[in-house]
Amino acid sequence: VDGFWMDRTEVTNAQFARFVVSTGYVSVAELAHPAGSAVFAPPDGPVDLADPANWWEFVPGACWSRPLGWRSDLADLHDHPVVHVTMTDAVAYCRWAGHRLPTEAEWEHAAAIEPLPATWPLAADGRLLANVWVGVFPHASQRPEPPGTMPVGAFAPRGLGVYDQLGQVWELTADGVAKGGSFLCSESYCTRYRPAAKLTPDGSACHIGFRCVAITDPPQAADPAEPGNG
């Protein structure tokens, strides 16, 4: 691929909120009848992994600004990746920002695929290396916090300096696929600890987001101390 400038992190809730305030944009999940989106609902015990309905629930009112439904909000989530977005939402944001979605080839190039350690998703010293599921999916997470998004840039970047291309949220691309896995990816289920994994998003969900590519070169490179800028 030709050279390009890519955001170091996924688009955050704070960034998407600025877009909504500036334009009055209403997301697809908010316009749906009924309004709402898919939210992860962990079962109490082992379930048939052939049926994702066992751990997904349509939640009325769930959208980018209310990730868990009508009574939720973005408190303490402003630096988390925006979720519950569709291709339509992502393209609208990119146009407002003067950016675009990366192609699938660009996304994979930015990932600069490297071998994963044998202890993945943990480092040899026990540190978690990405926001992925640890434990038996979908009912027995071994992480202390509930499964969900984390602040962007919480883990060290890989390859060319881009953050969170493994785990966190699936990232939409201009080719109509999502890449990289999410906080729900587990070696006991999807085994998708690799940037080449694909998910074709038919709608919005709590684990789907996106990042942007600049249409033209920015006036200067992003400050490495500010990973949310690309």
Poorly predicted regions: 221-230
**What is the count of β-strands?**
10
The spatial strand order of the largest sheet comes to 8-7-6-9
Please outline the major beta sheet. Answer: 4 strands, mixed
Query: How would you state the average pLDDT, rounded?
Result: 90
- Strand content is 5-15%
Helical content stands at 10-25%
Supply the number of helical segments.
4
Radius of gyration: 17 Å
> What is the overall shape?
globular
Distance between the termini: 18 Å
Oligomer: single chain
Return the structural class.
little secondary structure
Give the secondary structure arrangement, pairings included.
Blueprint: H1 13-23, H2 28-31, E1 36-40, E2 56-60, H3 87-97, E3 99-100, H4 104-111, E4 135-136, E5 140-141, E6 170-172, E7 178-179, E8 198-199, E9 208-209, E10 213-214
Parallel strand pairs: 6-9
Antiparallel strand pairs: 1-2, 3-10, 4-5, 6-7, 7-8
